[in-house]
Amino acid sequence: MGKDVVGLANTGTGKTAAFLVPLINRVIHDREQRALIMVPTRELALQIEQEFYGFTKRLNINAVTCVGGANIQPQIRVLRRNPNFVIGTPGRLKDLIDRRDLDLSKFGTVVLDEADRMLDMGFIGDMREILALMPKKRHTLFFSATLSRDIEKLIGEFLNDPVRISVKTRDTAATIDQDVVYFDPSTKFEKLVETLKEQNMDKVLVFGRTKHGVERLARDLTRAGVKAESIHGDKTHGHRQKALGLFKQDQVSVLVATDVAARGLDISGVSHVINYDLPGTYEDYTHRIGRTGRAGKAGKALTFVAK
Description:
alpha/beta, Rossmann fold, 2 domains, seven-stranded parallel beta sheet, 13 strands, 38% helix
């Protein structure tokens, strides 16, 4: 119907397909249609690109992913061919606009995915600037896992009389078993190693608070005989993708991550999430543990709490 949409959905509920399939269908009927998909992180952008190509096999519809940390020149080359879909993070999109390599005046649709996270990460100014360059009459699809006062303000600012669709039943999936692990501060690391060596610890995501701490923890775990990789903001784009690939292909059983790096990651079969360092907010907790128990499968979340 072409109405603006606010989609409230937990991660892992299939929202990528919910916006990609109808937009691809629209392009099949009108090859002039162009859509911008704005996301908070590189990983999420690449994930959407992967799903996009899964849906568009043999349809001859093109997309370009515009993210920082990757060479800008190939992105510019694809943009010159006017692809129907541009997927990107606010920072890199702004770069391309400033260089006059991206003209948004012909884009009829914008998708703001994980808008709450973009707000948290301080992208609000960039989002405003980018949207101001799009046609006034456009189709806006806005997805968020949370609905705060700030998010409501954004909806009022960016959308026109939107339809609201919520598939949020509760903040955490019923398929996730949540528990705590009590530790003695002097033997916290030993407790983690002991936990990771228990049965059924097949594919474990361990969360730490800082980039430096996450890097060190992955190194110490490897020394202790646990195959681990790390993913955080200081790692180059290539290194992050490599670590992610090894974890997805079960070549390492543990991925140690910061909140920002793991936002929006869709990794199938994560058996456990361990909060080695406590999350800063309730939202961070729900996002972290939402990496397991996805698509109806059972998962377990463990939070380390000092005695």
